[in-house]
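Orotidine-5'-phosphate decarboxylase, pasting as requested.
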Amino acid sequence: MGIDPSPALLAAWGLPDTPEGLERFSRTVVEAVGDLVAVVKPQSAFFERHGSRGIAVLETVLAELRRRGTVVVLDAKRGDIGSTTAAYADAYLDRSSPLSADAVTVTPYLGFGSLQPMIDKAAEHDAGLFVLARTSNPEGAGVQLAVAADGRTVGGTILDEVAALNRGAAPLGSLGVVLGATLTGLAADVAGLNGPVLAPGVGAQGADPAGLRRTFGTAATVVPSVSRGLLARGPGVADLREGARRLIDECAEALS
Ligand SMILES: O=c1ccn([C@@H]2O[C@H](COP(=O)(O)O)[C@@H](O)[C@H]2O)c(=O)[nH]1
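Structure tokens follow.
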């Protein structure tokens, strides 16, 4: 489940669009599902838009999730030239950083090799990465389905790079990919990935649990991700929890 405290959701929950509103929102989500869902995925952008006070709230949310032992994927989609990527790795993957998470989303579109500092830091800190391969938004296709010189799609080459790094890891490698749940065909092989697939797009973007099987089959380890589709049920803790519980059952059935 995502924590996406957008202005629209804050207003719908009767909360101010301020760091205090963010904090109330996030604490409610953590209280509702922190012990229920496999992964919580805060969206960094909704904290960053409040400046340093928003980042401070994100730090407290990450600390609380860490305290509870909830697995956290920070959706920050970072990526840059290698030397700057090393600084992002320190920020998000070094366990001593207040912004560290169990995994972070990263973009490989400055070249897969530019992610090496993140890959190294993740290995050092027993953390993981989710590398954007085929995103859930329709605009992604123009870049990600472009065909490389060897005939593979760009998104497919990302999958292959991640699969190569995960080869031999048991039970799964710590490097995953992002593949939108909204995709109708993958044009790439996920069965050989040997790592998790983060699949955002269920709910507000139109994907549903039944479609997960059509897109991913049953061979991949898929972590479907929902933000607005569940958050719209708030601010009641019981309603959020009930919605999450139902969706977990539907996704499990679709993917088993
Ligand atoms: O391909 C991608 C990668 C990331 N996201 C992020 O997931 C959530 C989706 O929110 P919903 O409200 O469930 O649509 C959001 O934080 C995105 O930035 C994605 O949608 N697609």
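Note for the archive: Strands lie at 2-3, 39-42, 71-78, 103-106, 128-134, 175-179, 196-200, 221-225.
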